[in-house]
């Protein structure tokens, strides 16, 4: 039987997410000493450093060349739009879920960019993977002075949602191969399984009979459920810690398209209800930089929104949006808000700010949170079958207190853990999985 442990000098993982993406790596000698010593890419967001970048691609008019990715793509497209030079460029955002939704997925499948122009999905995704691969290799080249063969000594790992079918997973593998990654050096890691591998190293706080608190890892026999709540999907899997420290799969991964993107869509629909779709579309076309900034601001606030009655949300309305609104409607914002069903939930504040009360904010989360709770309820109600005692929440959406508190409140007998930097757990777990695929025993 072939060894499931990598003998490559380095493992590099690419987490190609619906809303955010990144890469990470670790050397074998570091893994052997301390498995969690993993290097994660640092992106410049313009207002600070981030460990992930938006899954946004700006492709030149030739349809063959990726001009920019992530925050850089958003900024450069905004600059092109400001000078009215953007119309022939391809600008793709949050396009990964198209693979999940298209039941006839093939190499001929096309996806639309933000303006409706079409390109082959295979081309777009392979260009993004190529960019992430080259970006990682450039960083390695700047740090390594000794002879190092990129072609021979890297084990690549690419993450995919567990609920994707085999066709979608094969599509991602083909895209990675087209991006120059050799098939025999490529692993596809299911996102919740990668997260579970990393969770082996998460300390669990326990209290002994004498009242003392100790920090210990999950002990053998522990059955836990991993809720990987990302931007597009929520993947759920159950594992048991075995005596040798490896993990046994108790239930295959399940889930649905209930990720944080659903909350973003609810917020967008709220804006449409206030300003009207024509105004919002014109705002997007005429002031894409401000449009992106508005949703970036919401993304940050989304992860801090509290489930209690004090969870008010205030955000600044861009001047460009207000000017377009007044020009197109000739109405005041207050008058329009008073005509909506949620007039009592909104306040127009000083400084072009809009204040939303907690009930309205929570309503953005309701569809996705409800779907997650309904799915988890089946496992919670069948303790004799599954024996779950711990729930571990990972993925960017799990950092939202509204989601985590809902799970804690509804499943009180579970010890619910949200690791630090939960949004990086899948990426780091993919690196660990690349070093040792024997960690998880299926079936």
From TrEMBL:
Q: What InterPro entries does its record include?
A: ATPase_NBD, Hsp_70_fam
Tell me the GO molecular function terms: ATP binding
Enumerate the Pfam families for this protein. Answer: HSP70
Name the keywords, alphabetized: ATP-binding, Nucleotide-binding
Keyword presence, Ubl conjugation: no
Q: Which Gene3D superfamilies match?
A: 3.30.420.40
What residue ranges are annotated as transmembrane?
Answer: none
**Which family is it part of?**
Belongs to the heat shock protein 70 family.
Protein name as catalogued: Heat shock 70 kDa protein 12A
